[in-house]
Amino acid sequence: MSPPLIVVLNGPNLNMLGVREPEKYGTATLDDVEALCAETAEEYGLAIDFRQTNAEGELVTWIQECRGRAAGIVINPAGYTTTSIAVMDALLAVDLPVIEVHITNIHRREEFRHNSYVSKAATGVICGLGVGGYALAIRAMADLVEQDEE
Ligand code: DHK
Question: Which residue, 115, 50, 43, is CA-closest to 84?
């Protein structure tokens, strides 16, 4: 049997990790984050499909495609966190466990970053723990997927 698939989705500007405001987001690149996710997934017997887009519609399409294909979604919606009802609706539509990740603690930052539409569709949220939050999300997803299989 093939391992359960976790789709890891990254929103706008995360392709610039490593060079983008390193004092906030750190120096790891998105390739480093992908490697961390792949390593963690392998440890827990999961497969991953890791993607990034700057386009809201593409993110919505990728979420929709998870239905019937993936066992769970890990998502850093980045700038779409606080604006996108479409991303929230897509996550609700696919009816899968969802873990929302933010590299920074959005609650310690500007007020406009505090309200997450995505949290209304998320099973859990990890923020403020740097890119290590992605590894924690995959670890948590391993438990959620196991519960779903029982
Ligand atoms: C990343 C972004 O690009 C911002 O728009 C969010 C998030 C925070 C992060 O911490 O990963 O506000």
Answer: 115
